[in-house]
Amino acid sequence: MRHLLDTKTLSRGDALRILDVAEDMADTQLREVKKLPTLRGRTVVNLFFEDSTRTRISFEAAAKRLSADVINFSAKGSSVSKGESLQDTAQTLQAMGADAVVIRHGASGAPRTLATSGWITAGVVNAGDGTHEHPTQALLDAFTIRKRRFGADSRGRDLSGVRVTIVGDILHSRVARSNVWLLDTLGADVTLVAPPTLIPQDVSAWPARIVYDLDEAIAGEPDALMMLRIQAERMNAAYFPTEREYSRRWGLDARRLEALGADSIVMHPGPMNRGLEISAEAADSPRSTVLEQVANGVSVRMAALYLLLAGAESGHDPRAGAEKENPR
Questions:
Q1: Do both 99 and 181 map to the same domain?
Q2: Which among 269, 294, 285 is positioned nearest to 169, based on CA atoms?
Q3: Vertex 18: Cα angle to 63 and 46 (nearest 5)
C-alpha cells in the first residue's frame, strides 16, 4: 500500500488487510508496555491545515507506539499562515526526510495532489480533506462494528448482511462519504437519514438508501446507528429551522434509544453536540461505542502506518520483536 487517500478506491482485500492488521495492533495495546519497534528510524509528519485534536492525537499515538519519530506541523503560526503553498510545504518536508505525511486539509483533493504531484516521495495518509473523505475514520468505524458483532473471531470477516444507518449532516460529512463506500465494499447495507436540505444534490451513484424519517429507519432495526455531528462551521445557510426542531426530528433521544433493537449499537465519530444530534442518555449508554471508536482509532492508524511504511517490504508479523520489549 503506497498511500491511503480514500475508501472509494480501496479494494475489499486491502480493507480487510488493514482491519486484520489492526486486530494484531489492538492485541499489543493490551500489554503493559504498548510500544513496538516496527517503525524505528522512520519519520511521520502530522500536517494539519485544519484544527483537530482527536485525529491528530490518535495519529501521533499510533506513530509513537510503532517507535516512529513524529513531527507535528500546524498551519496556524507557521509559514502556511504567511502564504506558503502546499508545494513549498511539501518540498520542505521532503528535505527533512519525511517517510510518511498524515495530512488534514480544508480543500477536497489536497492529499491526492500531495501524493501524485511528485513533490514528495513519502507515503500520504488522508486525515480528512474538505467534505470529501476521511478514510481512517471509516476504517475504525468498520473495525468497531466488526468487533462488536464477531468479538475475538473477527479476523478475515467482512460485514455482509450488517445493516448500518447513518444519520445527520450527510451534506458536509466526509465521515459519511468514506463510510458509505467502505461499508458497501465490505458487504454492509447502508441507509442515510437526514433532512432533505442536508442530503447532497446527487446521490444516485451512492450505494445507499435515502430515508428522511429517523423513526422509520429505526423501525428497520439497524445493527449500527451512526449519529453525525452537525457541522455548523461549514454551514453558511439555514439548513433546518432551529436546533430544537432538528433534535426533535433527527436527534437520538431516550425514546428512540429505547426503540432500537436489543443488539443495535450507537456510534458517533465525535466530537458530539450533546442535546442536539445525540442525547446524554444515548451517548453514555452501554450501547454506545464512542470511547471504543477512539481506542480502536489508534489500532487502525497503527495498521495503516505499518502497511504504508513496513508491511509491503517486511512480509512479517507486525508484532515481531515486540515480545522482548513487551513482556506479558
A1: no
A2: 269
A3: 30
pLDDT of amino acid 282 = 96
0.85 surpassed by pTM: yes
For residue 143, what is its C-alpha cell? 473495525
- What is the distance between the alpha carbons of residues 181 and 12, in angstroms, rounded to a whole number? 11
Same domain as 305, residue 257:
no
- Report d(CA 307, CA 285) in Å as an integer: 35
| Domain extent at residue 229 | 135-292
Distance separating alpha carbons of residues 251 and 167, to the nearest angstrom: 8
**What pLDDT, on a 0 to 100 scale, did the predictor assign at position 37?**
96
158 neighbors 11 (Cβ within 8 angstroms):
no
To the nearest 10 degrees (0 to 180), the angle between helices 12-28 and 135-150 is 70
CATH code: domain of residue 174: 3.40.50.1370
Query: Does residue 193 sit in the same domain as residue 279?
Result: yes
Judged on CB neighbours under 10 Å (0-12, 13-18, 19+), 320 is exposed
Contact between 123 and 304 (Cβ < 8 Å): no
The whole-number average pLDDT for the span 230-254 is 78
Residue 203 falls within a domain, yes or no?
Answer: yes
Cβ contact 247:253 at 8 Å: yes
Q: In percent, how much of the chain has pLDDT > 70?
A: 90
Same domain, 153 and 280: yes
